[in-house]
Write a structure and sequence with these properties.
The complex is a heterodimer of chains A (421) and B (271).
Chain A: H1 2-10, H2 12-16, H3 22-31, H4 36-51, E1 76-77, E2 81-85, E3 93-96, H5 97-103, H6 105-111, H7 122-130, E4 133-139, E5 149-155, E6 164-165, E7 168-174, E8 179-188, E9 193-203, E10 208-216, E11 221-231, E12 236-243, E13 248-257, E14 263-272, E15 277-286, E16 292-301, E17 306-315, E18 322-332, E19 338-347, E20 352-363, H8 366-373, H9 379-396, H10 403-415
Parallel strand pairs in A: 1-6, 4-7, 5-8, 6-9, 7-9, 8-10, 9-11, 10-12, 11-13, 12-14, 13-15, 14-16, 15-17, 16-18, 17-19, 18-20
Antiparallel strand pairs in A: 2-5, 3-4
Helix pairs in contact in A: 3-4, 4-7, 8-9, 9-10
Chain B: E1 11-20, E2 27-36, E3 41-45, H1 52-60, E4 65-74, E5 77-78, H2 84-90, E6 92-95, E7 102-106, H3 107-119, H4 125-138, E8 149-150, H5 156-170, E9 174-178, H6 186-199, E10 205-210, E11 223-228, E12 231-236, H7 238-247, H8 250-270
Parallel strand pairs in B: 3-10, 3-11, 6-9, 9-10
Antiparallel strand pairs in B: 1-2, 1-4, 4-5, 7-8, 11-12
Helix pairs in contact in B: 3-5, 5-6
Classes of the chains: A alpha/beta (421), B alpha/beta (271).
Chain lengths: 421, 271
């Protein structure tokens, strides 16, 4: 608030250009005829934004991603195009949060902000105040959605000269024994775009949710995502993330494995070139007995691109019989590419079935490269195959028709011109 | 074969000396001459550590080795400085002794890409699949094999068959088979040998590298060479292989040592 007041003194123009200030936030929400409780939540987000500093490299998850020169408040809101395609059984919902405010206000009200609090950090606070691409998937008890729900969030025509912001908010409420696959395709134009995104996923007992985040960003997009899921008894969450575009992609993926036998999987691939920067943070918090988790993050890096991985598997005292696997593998395709990897295990019970973690950073297997070249593939083509092959096991785990081919095509296209020197 | 001058060599190795890349740069192949003409099958035999695999890999252009001296000619062209893929696209094929796994790349995708690289255009889909099915059947391999990742989780025998599958599909001009017979049971050996024989045409040259003569019972060589300490010390016809089968390498090694001693004495006497 102190900041807002200072800006108020300095002049009208500055005040108008504070899209995350409480005054603007409330004004905009009223303009959109949002219900009072939601306006309050947004105002709370604005206050949190004002009170929260940008993270610094002194904080462990931010050690290799320095955002000190980034001013979120300088990024004006960019109106996105939002499209949801779904073939739903009766009672289920997939669409914008705005529309859901009429038909299922109580679902939104009780879940929005229930897993990710606006006070957690500046990006999250900005999102709480001004999210402008809200998606709700609500699966009532027992409802199974057979075909994937496809959500497209597109920020086309991002102006080249003016920094813009897109703030997606994804809310998934999967009630007992419900099941769905959700594909979120994120697209942006070439202008400078900041994307503070939040996803909250609630998986009740025996629910199964698969979520694919497909980040087809433009070259000047910077994404900061916080995803958190809470899982009930025997619930399953499978998240896969594809990071190929964008200038900076930072994703924090967390699962709270509360119910007995809950299972979460986080899988990700990143393909970098130029000065692209990827940063993945994962946390699997094993709270319930016999909970299991898998993490598999793979990055292939050309040019002077960089990937960072910091992941914690925590097995609490209450999680007897838990099992977890955590793996981060990085392929360096050029001399200037760089990867930092830090998988961490925190085990607080002695009754663990198995807990593994591994990290590798290195060039492609030279024997494999020679093998492919000996079959006539030139070095670049051979590398395209090796990288596509490196990612393929991840794509194969996502039951989405054509995904493997789609990913392979994206790898071939990007590496056709990538800096492999 | 008609009378007159023999056809020009398709593979000609001249005074080749090869070391392991990187320090300490141990020289393994220490001066090899070998000429393969179209239609010929050569067998290169020798005890372990004699340099057979190094020679095969150097011919294929492996970056794990450096050529210190000498040249490799392919159809009259010096290919010593060419990359492995340039050699392959000209029609050279190496069947690996230990084929490496290529995770995430299926056999069918590799074959399609290899054929595309070799021919410069994508092979017609229907024709390609028909040929793939026929080649798999000839090698007694299940069709599911083509959908598996290359060499990943393959048994020793499957790996060797997979090499012959590629050989059969790519139809090279010169095939170098590095111990393709090792680790095979009799049935697999016969299948692999049939695959090699199928390639045996008047235009193709084959170099079979082997420790034992087993495969030579199924593929009769026109020439047999014995490599010892990086040099070819004996060349002959199929009878040489029979001699090794009967006596092992020891008699030849003794003769070679004796000759070396004689040469040393003669050299001393010259002074």
């Amino acid at each position: 608030m102190a900041k807002g007041e200072l800006q108020g003194i300095s002049g009208q123009a500055t005040l108008a250009a504070d899209p995350y200030g409480e005054r603007d936030v409330v004004h905009a929400a009223r303009g959109d005829s949002e219900p009072p409780w939601l306006i309050d939540r947004r105002a709370e987000g604005a206050r949190a934004f004002a009170a929260t500093a940008m993270p610094t490299p002194a904080l462990r998850p931010w050690r290799y991603t320095d955002v000190s020169s980034l001013a979120i408040e300088d990024h004006a809101l960019h109106p996105p195009a939002l499209r949801v395609e779904a073939d739903l059984p009766p009672g289920a919902y997939a669409g914008t949060i705005a529309e859901a405010l009429d038909s299922r206000a109580e679902v939104v009200r009780s879940h929005l902000g229930s897993l990710v609090a606006s006070t957690e950090g500046r990006f999250v606070a900005a999102n709480a105040a001004r999210w402008n691409a809200g998606v709700l998937v609500h699966l009532p008890r027992g409802s199974a959605v057979e075909r994937p729900i496809v959500v497209e969030v597109t920020a086309a025509d991002v102006p080249a000269g003016a920094p813009s912001a897109l703030l997606p908010r994804i809310l998934v409420v999967a009630e007992e024994r419900s099941e769905a696959t959700i594909v979120v395709r994120l697209r942006s134009g070439d202008g400078p775009l900041l994307v503070p995104a939040v996803a909250e996923i609630s998986c009740a007992d025996h629910a199964l949710v698969r979520l694919l985040l497909d980040g087809g960003w433009g070259a000047q997009t910077r994404e900061f995502t916080t995803l958190r899921a809470r899982l009930g008894r025997s619930a399953t969450l499978e998240v896969a993330t594809l990071a190929i575009g964008g200038r900076l992609v930072k994703q924090t993926l967390e699962s709270l494995l509360e119910g007995e036998g809950a299972h979460s999987e986080f899988r990700g691939v990143a393909l970098g070139d130029g000065d692209q920067h990827f940063d993945f943070v994962t946390l699997q918090d094993h709270l319930g007995p016999r909970t299991t988790s898998n993490v598999e993050i793979k990055a292939a890096l050309a040019g002077s691109s960089r990937s960072v991985y910091y992941g914690i598997t925590r097995v609490e005292e209450t999680a007897a019989g838990a099992a977890a696997e955590q793996e981060n593998r990085n392929l360096l395709l050029s001399r200037h590419a760089k990867a930092d990897s830090d998988p961490v295990l925190e085990i607080l019970t002695s009754e663990v079935i198995r807990c593994g973690h591994g990290a590798t950073v290195g060039p492609v297997d030279q024997e494999a490269l020679f093998y492919l070249q000996s079959r006539g593939l030139d070095e670049r083509t051979a590398l395209q195959f090796l990288v596509a092959g490196f990612f393929d096991p991840v794509a194969r785990r996502i039951p989405l028709e054509g995904l493997g081919d789609e990913l392979a095509a994206a790898v071939h296209a990007k590496l056709a011109s990538a800096d492999l020197s | 074969m008609s009378e007159g001058a023999p056809p020009a060599p398709i593979l000609d190795v001249r005074g080749l000396k090869v070391s392991i890349a990187g320090p300490p740069g141990l020289q393994i192949v220490r001066g090899v001459d070998l000429t393969v003409r179209p239609g010929e099958v050569h067998a290169l035999m020798g005890p372990n550590g004699s340099g057979k695999s190094t020679l095969a890999n150097a011919i294929a252009g492996s970056p794990a080795y450096v050529v210190d001296e000498g040249c490799v000619y392919f159809q009259g062209e010096d290919i010593t400085q060419l990359s492995p893929d340039e050699r392959a696209r000209r029609g050279l094929f190496l069947s690996f002794q230990y084929p490496t796994a290529i995770p995430g790349v299926t056999m069918v995708n590799l074959l399609r890409a290899s054929l595309k690289a070799r021919r410069g255009t994508e092979p017609p889909a229907r024709e390609f699949l028909t040929e793939l099915r026929e080649t798999l059947a000839a090698l007694k391999m299940d069709e599911s094999f083509a959908r598996r990742y290359v060499n990943e989780g393959f048994s020793g025998g499957e790996k060797k068959r997979a090499e012959i599958l590629q050989l059969g599909m790519l139809k090279p001009t010169v095939a170098v088979l590095d111990e393709t017979d090792s680790g095979l049971d009799v049935d697999a050996l016969r299948t692999v040998a049939e695959g090699v024989n199928a390639l045996r045409t008047p235009d193709v040259g084959i170099l079979i590298i082997t420790h034992y003569e087993r495969i030579l019972n199924y593929v009769t060589p026109d020439f047999v060479h014995v490599l010892v300490d990086g040099r070819i010390v004996r060349s002959g016809d199929a009878a040489l292989a029979k001699r090794i089968e009967a006596q092992g390498y020891d008699p030849i090694l003794r003769e070679v040592n004796q000759e070396a001693a004689t040469v040393a004495v003669a050299a001393g006497g010259d002074k």
